[in-house]
Each structure stands twice: as structure tokens, then as C-alpha cells.
Design a protein that fits this description.
The chain has about 900 residues and is an alpha/beta fold. The protein contains 34 helices and 24 strands. The chain has a nine-stranded mixed β-sheet with strand order 7-10-11-4-1-12-13-17-18, with helices on both faces. Strands 21-20-19-22-23-24 form a six-stranded parallel β-sheet, sandwiched between helices. Helix 1 packs across helix 4 (about 105-115) and helix 11 packs antiparallel against helix 12. The longest helix is centred in the first third of the chain and has 30 residues, at about 50-75. The structure holds (1S)-1,5-anhydro-1-(2,5-dihydroxyphenyl)-D-glucitol. (1S)-1,5-anhydro-1-(2,5-dihydroxyphenyl)-D-glucitol binds near residues 133, 725, 728 and 729.
């Protein structure tokens, strides 16, 4: 990653930011900043962190200048903006990306070389900005990169968490969670905006539609400039910090109650303190809803304030100036908040406000996992946000009334009405103060069936048949697990309140229309779209894999592919070229060596670099099926042990690397981590297997690890049960870096197969359309356990890898399908998985063919650039046009 030798030469000045001031001025700037931040220009006397801060400050000066120019220009032009509302932005490190995106790689590389500084050491001195869990948060970061690169007026809005994603350590092979204290050395990439603040209310009462919050905090803005590539556009990520309204309670202090004196501060700061470490898993904590409302309200207030400054009360114009994209259900309280701001604060009538809201908002769904689709108890929202609960209730009522006029629904309602006389309408929801402990809110377990509708008990009031016919469209629903408890289905609220709803891969966008949003799709098919995810080819190919990037640039005769990834298809003609293959292979080997060195540094394990590098890095989750991978590793180990020396020599040596974090309360996921480390301990110390098999768990997997792992990988695993992974995005990054994929026909794997050629992937497993049938029916009588599966599972059960008791329930969870176990179908997919793995081994022996395919992956990955995704959002949902800053 040394930028001393930049992978791509961007001519200085070509993007309006790159310096033309010459090396001497740049050197001066670096030295001055070293003095400012580290009190010395004697580099030898400074540690890497000091040097990093000095260099980062000098880069920041240029970044901020371009940022100010961009923002000023956009303000003057009064152009339409896209606002990306997201609870997560997984930005990773900024120094290298900023330098490279600004086209300053060459000049900085030269000067640092002169100063005797290794760029790599500087890069490693930077903390990761890990304000996200996984795919969803990293997608948001890639989107910001593309929005800026495409000159689209747009900002991200989120939370400036004081503590990001926890650091994962291994303690005796088990996951240990440590806080991510990422701001200790300051953050040179942000600009504090103490003068941009908003009040955010919670709790309290509503009287005549007027909300009087019982608690208030301040949201303070921090801007994080986002440099585009080969443009002078610098976009923005505005993050909010929560602060108390009153710094200090002097009266309490004077009375000697020192804790009470700072109580308000502590309570306020709690809101932006920690990122919830759940990725597509349980929700339900009140503080999380507080966080969601906090950043949504601050962001909407901020946009409306700027609008008002320019256009006064001309609110019908708002949809021509602003579009808000809601990233998953986390920011969907925006539907009610925008209504509240327009009605209660700006004095609009309901209908006018609703028309504006529905034109301004759009919603992306990222999962069909029931536990990640937020459903907040009415009592929780009613207590925390009483006015919003009223608004949601009214939205629900009006929405269902409007359906009665729809022909499709009309038939159902009339039929229902005929079968019984209508009852008087149900009483309005009275949300105030309904629960004492809000933190008792629900959590759902993976894979649990949604409860069936119960018959009313004797003496119990029967439901109005019209209401019953409309119930499936209800935003406010009955909790299937707890009778009498009402929930707000946030995804339904978002669907009703948005102009567009999209899934994140072709198959996923179809599945949501057939399953979770079926009834909504039936009555408003025009809202539903697909936007297949993408990743930025800057960070995920050009900057993280400089050697490959240089070879691609050389082959294609230029670096235009970096912002027009479709040009990567030009590599196809080199796929059979033996010389090119040799160069390609040499780079892969060098990247494997770099990865092995990093693994040595972080785990102490020494790995050979000739074996096949087989990698699965992602959050640990049952649906992602790391377990399937591990069972096949156990089987491979068994086979090698049982083989004669001659047979052993025929095995294709493999290094199996698994990395990922488990949500702290996710019991089974934690066991899967321990199973990986336990298998590693056994296998890696067994002389019988020697270099034929190595298994390593990569601790604390994060963005900076990924930037080294992905370029060094040869095979990557994307093996979720079909229909469960909405898209996946690491599959795209691996493909870009010429890594072959073993995977199911799930998420974006399907589209990767289309682009790369299905025959070039190792595809296996049950198709998505068969999965539900399996779960509902076939599982009950299925007994065809593959004997190899049984052997592998018994090895775990029998304690071959130690920790026998600890693994018992993990083993039980996939043991007897007829009892309802193995929800994610590990056993039924095992046989086909081993077949695909055998194909992998066979192909690896033919290095020319393997390399040919590897080239074809990169060549076919252009579609998965987030530039393509963002163009589609901009054209088909946002209606936002590029607005490049004219060169002065
Ligand atoms: O979002 C990614 C998808 C991936 C999906 C992930 C995701 C989260 O990381 C968190 C919550 C959630 O609902 C979904 O699991 O398949 O690629 C980006 O769309």
C-alpha cells in the first residue's frame, strides 16, 4: 500500500485539487503541520502517530479548501440534494483514500520519501472509523465515495458514535469484546461545527397536537469531507453528537450532589456514545430508538432550516430540493418526524404535509430476516415520542381507509363486510406512559415462525370483519408472540411513507415483493424497484491492490477504469494470454505474501504461501453458514489423517481463513468462532497434516484488514442459505480482485455469475425457491444425512477439537431436521458443497485455467461499481443531477 509508488498516475491538477505548487511547498506544509501537531520537525524524534497527524493535517488543508468551494457552489446553485440517512457509516481509514482520491499520491509519495517516512507506517497509525457493523454500513461509505465522484450534490447524515464497532480479541480461542476508543488521538478528518446545533426532545405529553417534551438534548454537527476521485467535488458526511442542554446543575453541585450535577450531561452523551453491535440481528432497546430519532430529527431539522432560509415557507417546493434515502428501517421514524415538523412547526395541514413527505422519502430494504425488521412496541414509541405515535396512528388509519377505495382491496373488504355487520371503529391508541421499563422491549430469534392467528377466546370481543380484511396492510400490528401487545412495523411505515422502495440485489428485490411486502406490492406495484449494490473500485481495487491496478492500467492503456469500471471488461482479451497470466499470478503471490506477513504480525501464525488461500470474512451468523465451511474443513482433516502417504501427496494444500465478529449476545455465533479456533489449534499442530491444511481465525476483522485480505485471496466463500443474504458486497470486492467464488445462488452472487459466467463460479446448493418448501414440509421426513456430514459432526461431538460439552448444543442445532433443527439447511446442502469443493481442488491444479478465470472475474466486475448503483439511484429515485464545481 505504499503510496511512494502510486499505482496510477494522476496528473497533478487534473482534478482541480491536486497540487501544482511543487514539492517544496508541500514539504513546507508537512513540516509546519508536524510542528503544530507533534511540536517538532525532527521526524526521528516523532512516533508514527505524530507523523501521521502532521501529514493528515497537511492533507486536510487541501481537502477542506476544496470542500468549502464545493459546498459554497452547491449552495449558490440551490440544487437538489440527496440526503443519505444511515445509522451506520463504516468509513475505515481516510489518509490513503484522501490522498489518492485528491490525486496527491505522487507528490506526497515523493516528499515523504525525501523525509525518510514510510507511507505504510503512517497508514497503520490511523485508527479505523468503524461507525458501522458490516455490509450495510460499508455500503453507505462506498455510496458517499461514488456520490462525490459523480459530482452529485449529496450528504450522508448519521451519528458520531464515541465508541464504534467493538474490537474483537481472542481469549483462549473465545471472542472477547473490547471498546473501540477511536477518538483518543483526535480525528483530523472532521470539522466541528459548534454553531450548528438543534434541540431534540423526548418523552413528555401531547396536548392539542402540541408536544411538550420532558427531556431535551442538543445535537451538534461534525462535518466529514468526502473527496471524489478526479473531480474537485468534495461531498459531506454530517454526523451528530449528543450534548446536554445544560452543561452543569450548579444547584445540585452546591448541595453536594456531584453525581446529580453531571447527570444530564451523562444521559445526553449516552445517546451518541456507542454503536449497537448488531448486524441484521436483534433490536429492541429503547436507547437504540432514541439514537434513531436523535439523528433523524437533527438531520431533518438541519435540511428544513437551510430550505427555510432560502425559500421561506414555500414547502411544496421541498421535494424539488431534497430527497432522503432511508438506509434500512433504522431511520424510518423520519416518516413521522417530517410530518411533525411540517405540521406542528411549519403549520401545514395534514394533506399538504403528507404529499410532501411521500415525495421526499425513499426506503431501501436490506434484509428479509425477521429479527432485523424493526417493530417497536406502540407503548415504547408512545412513551418516548408521544406525538409521533399519534401521527403514525393517523397515517395507519388514513392509509387503510384509502385502501377501501382500491378495487383490489374493495372486493376483499366487501366480502368481509357481507359475512358480518361492521363494528364501530376501534378506539384511538392512547400511548402515554403505557410502560414503565422500556428496555424490556422485544427481541426476535432467528428463524422463528411468525405466530399464527389465534381464535378469539370465549367471551372475547370478535374482530370487525372489515378491519380483519385490512389487517394485513396495518402498520400497527399485534405482536404474534405476546397477545395484546401492539407493534409498529417500521418497514411498513417506510413503504407507505416513501415514493420508492428498493431491494439491494435482483433476487432480493423479487423476494421482498413476494414475501415481506407482498400485500403492499399488490396495491402499489409502482413503488417497488431494484438497486443492486456496488462497491467503490477506488478503495476496493485501485488503492488496496496497487500492483494489480498498475497491471490493469498498463493492459487497458490508461486508468479510466478507476471511474468507469465497465472498462474492466477490456481485460477479457488478456484472459488466455500466457504472459499476462504470469504477471497476474505473480501479483497474486506477492499479495498472498503481504497477507501472510500481516497474519503473522496479528496472530503470530506463520503460513506458507504456496497453498490455495481460501477465505470467508463476514459477520458471524447462522444464515451465512460458516458452520458449513467448518464441517467441510473437519471432513478434509479427517480424510488427510486417514490417507496413506501416497494419497496425501495428492491433496491440494489449503489455508482456510475465517474472520468476523459475533454480536455480543449471539450465543451460537460465538460458538462458531470458538469452533474455528479449536479446529485451528488441532489441525495446525498436527504433523500428519503438515502444510496440507492450515486453519486460522483472523481476529478483529475490519475494513483495514479487508484491504489486505481481499487482494491476497484466491477462493472466497459466499455460502448463505439461498434467499437469506440480501446481496452481500464482499463478494463484489473479491471478484474485482480476481478471487474465485464458491457460493450459493443467493443475493448478488447470482448477478456476479451472470457477469463473470456461471461456469466460472463454484455454484452449489438448494435454490431459493425450494428452501421454504423444505422448511415447511420435506424436513420432517428427511433422513439422507451424508455419511461424511455425520463423520464431521461426530468429530465435533466426540471432542476431536476439544471443548466437547461447549459444542454440544451447536452440534444439536443441526442434528435432527425432523425436530425442526437446522433452520439454515446445513445438512441438506453439505453433499453438493463437497462436490463444489472437490471442483475447486481440481481446478487449482490447473494454474493456467485458474488464472484465466481470475482475470475473468475482474473483467466481469465492472457492473458492481457503486458508481453504477448510485447513477441508478440518482436517475430512477432521487432525480438529482451532477453539479461539478467549475474550475476557477
Ligand atoms: O446489508 C448489506 C447486504 C447484506 C445485508 C446487510 C445488512 C446489514 O449489514 C445490517 C442490517 C441489515 O438489515 C442488512 O445482510 O446482504 O449486502 C448491504 O445491502
Amino acid at each position: 500500500r505504499a503510496i511512494a509508488e502510486p499505482p496510477v498516475k494522476t496528473a497533478p491538477g487534473s482534478n482541480g485539487v491536486a497540487t501544482s505548487e511543487g514539492d517544496s511547498k508541500l514539504k513546507e506544509s508537512i513540516l509546519q503541520n508536524l510542528l503544530n501537531t507533534g511540536s517538532s520537525t525532527h521526524i526521528e524524534a516523532l512516533d508514527a502517530k505524530d507523523v501521521y497527524r502532521g501529514v493528515a493535517q497537511s492533507v486536510r488543508e487541501k481537502l477542506v479548501a476544496a470542500f468549502n468551494r464545493t459546498q459554497e457552489y452547491w449552495r449558490e446553485e440551490d440544487t437538489k440534494f440527496i440526503y443519505y440517512l444511515s445509522a451506520e457509516f463504516l468509513m475505515g481509514r481516510s489518509l490513503l483514500n484522501t490522498v489518492q482520491n485528491l490525486g496527491l499520491g505522487g507528490p506526497y509519495g515523493e516528499v515523504l520519501k525525501e523525509l525518510g517516512v514510510k507511507m505504510e507506517a503512517l497508514v497503520d497509525a490511523e485508527q479505523n472509523a468503524a461507525l458501522g457493523n458490516g455490509g450495510l454500513g460499508r455500503l453507505a461509505a462506498c455510496f458517499l465515495d461514488s456520490i462525490a465522484t459523480l459530482d452529485l450534490p449529496g450528504w450522508g447524515y448519521g451519528i458520531r458514535y464515541k465508541y464504534g464497532m467493538f474490537k474483537q480479541a481472542l481469549k483462549g480461542g473465545y471472542q472477547d469484546e473490547l471498546p473501540d476508543i477511536w477518538l483518543t488521538n483526535g480525528n483530523p478528518w472532521e470539522i466541528a461545527r459548534p454553531n450548528i446545533t438543534y434541540r431534540i426532545g423526548f418523552y413528555g405529553t401531547v396536548d392539542q397536537f402540541q408536544w411538550s417534551p420532558a427531556e431535551e438534548v442538543i445535537a451538534k454537527a461534525y462535518d466529514n469531507p468526502i473527496p471524489g476521485f478526479q473531480t474537485s467535488t468534495v461531498g459531506n458526511l454530517r454526523l451528530w453528537e449528543a450534548l446536554p442542554l445544560h452543561e452543569f446543575d450548579l444547584a445540585a453541585f452546591n448541595k453536594g450532589d456531584y453525581v446529580q450535577a453531571v447527570e444530564e450531561r451523562r444521559k445526553a452523551e449516552d445517546i451518541s456514545a456507542v454503536l449497537y453491535p448488531n448486524d441484521a440481528t436483534e433490536y429492541g432497546k429503547e436507547l437504540r430508538l432514541k439514537q434513531q430519532y436523535f439523528f433523524v430529527s437533527a438531520s431533518l431539522q438541519d435540511v428544513l432550516a437551510r430550505f427555510r432560509e432560502r425559500h421561506g415557507a414555500n414547502w411544496p417546493l421541498l421535494p424539488e430540493k431534497a430527497c432522503f434515502q432511508m438506509n434500512d428501517t433504522h431511520p424510518t421514524i423520519a416518516v413521522a418526524e417530517l410530518m411533525r415538523l411540517l405540521i406542528d412547526c411549519e403549520g401545514l395541514g395534514w394533506d399538504a404535509a403528507w404529499a410532501i413527505t411521500q415525495k421526499c422519502l425513499a426506503f431501501t430494504n436490506h434484509t428479509v430476516m425477521p429479527e432485523a425488521l424493526e417493530k417497536w412496541p406502540v407503548a415504547v414509541i408512545g412513551k418516548l415520542l408521544p406525538r409521533h405515535m399519534e401521527i403514525i396512528d393517523k397515517i395507519d388509519t388514513i392509509w387503510k381507509d384509502s385502501l377501501k377505495e382500491q378495487e383490489k382491496v374493495l372486493g376483499q373488504v366487501e366480502a368481509a363486510a357481507k359475512s358480518a355487520p361492521p363494528k364501530p371503529p376501534k378506539a384511538e391508541i392512547k400511548p402515554k406512559g403505557a410502560v414503565e421499563s422500556l428496555t424490556d422491549a422485544l427481541t426476535f430469534k432467528a428463524g422463528e415462525p411468525s405466530g399464527g392467528k389465534e381464535e378469539p377466546e370465549e367471551g372475547e370481543e370478535e374482530e370487525d370483519p372489515v378491519e380483519a380484511a385490512l389487517a394485513k396492510y396495518s402498520i400497527i400490528t399485534e405482536n404474534p408472540w405476546e397477545k395484546g401487545v401492539k407493534l409498529v412495523n417500521m418497514a411498513y411505515l417506510a413503504v407507505v411513507g416513501s415514493k420508492a422502495v428498493n431491494g439491494v440485489a435482483a433476487i432480493h428485490s423479487e423476494i421482498i415483493k413476494d414475501t415481506i411486502f407482498k400485500d403492499f406490492y399488490d396495491v402499489m406495484p409502482h413503488k417497488f424497484q431494484n438497486k443492486t449494490n456496488g462497491v467503490t473500485p477506488r478503495r476496493w481495487l485501485a488503492w488496496c491492490n496497487p500492483a494489480l491496478a498498475a497491471l490493469i492500467t498498463e493492459a487497458l492503456g490508461g486508468d479510466e477504469w478507476i471511474n468507469d469500471a465497465t472498462r474492466l471488461s477490456g481485460l477479457r482479451k488478456f484472459a488466455d494470454d500466457k504472459d499476462f497470466q504470469a504477471k497476474w499470478r505473480a501479483i497474486k503471490l506477492a499479495n498472498k505474501e503481504r497477507l501472510a506477513a500481516k497474519i503473522k504480525e496479528r496472530t503470530g501464525v506463520t503460513l506458507p504461501t504456496t497453498p490455495l488461500y481460501d477465505i470467508q470474512i463476514k459477520r458471524i451468523h447462522e444464515y451465512k453458514r460458516q458452520y458449513l465451511n467448518l464441517l467441510s474443513v473437519a471432513w478434509r482433516y479427517h480424510q488427510i489423517k486417514a490417507a496413506t502417504p501416497l494419497e496425501r501427496s495428492k491433496f491440494v494444500p489449503r489455508v482456510v481463513l475465517i474472520g468476523g465478529k459475533a454480536a455480543s449476545a449471539y450465543y451460537m455465533a460465538k460458538k462458531i468462532i470458538r469452533l474455528t479456533t479449536a479446529i485451528g489449534e488441532t489441525v495446525n499442530s498436527d504433523p500428519d497434516v503438515s502444510d496440507l491444511l492450515k486453519v486460522v481465525f483472523l481476529p478483529d476483522y475490519n475494513v483495514d484488514w479487508a484491504e489486505v485480505i481481499i487482494p491476497g485471496s484466491e477462493l472466497s466463500q459466499h455460502i448463505s442459505t439461498a434467499g437469506t443474504e440480501a446481496s452481500g458486497t464482499s463478494n463484489m470486492k473479491f471478484a474485482m480482485n480476481g478471487c474465485l467464488i464458491i457460493g450459493t445462488m443467493d443475493g448478488a452472487n447470482i448477478e456476479i455469475a451472470e457477469e463473470v459466467g456461471k461456469e466460472n463460479l463454484f455454484v452449489f446448493g438448494m435454490p431459493a425457491e425450494d428452501v421454504q418448501g423444505w422448511r415447511d414440509g420435506k424436513r420432517a421426513e428427511w433422513k439422507d444425512y451424508d455419511p461424511r456430514f455425520t463423520t464431521a459432526l461426530n468429530m465435533i461431538k466426540d471432542g476431536v477439537f476439544g471443548d466437547k460439552e461447549y459444542f454440544q448444543d451447536l452440534a444439536d442445532s443441526i442434528s435432527d431436521m425432523s425436530k425442526g433443527n437446522d433452520w439454515f439447511l446445513v445438512a441438506p446442502d453439505f453433499t453438493d458443497y463437497l462436490r463444489a469443493q472437490a471442483e475447486v481442488d481440481k481446478l487449482y491444479l490447473d494454474q493456467d485455467e485458474w488464472t484465466r478465470r481470475s482475470i475473468l472475474y475482474t473483467a466481469g466486475s465492472g457492473f458492481f461499481s457503486s458508481d453504477r448503483t448510485i447513477k441508478q439511484y440518482a436517475d430512477e429515485i432521487w432525480d438529482v443531477k451532477p453539479m461539478p464545481v467549475p474550475s476557477s
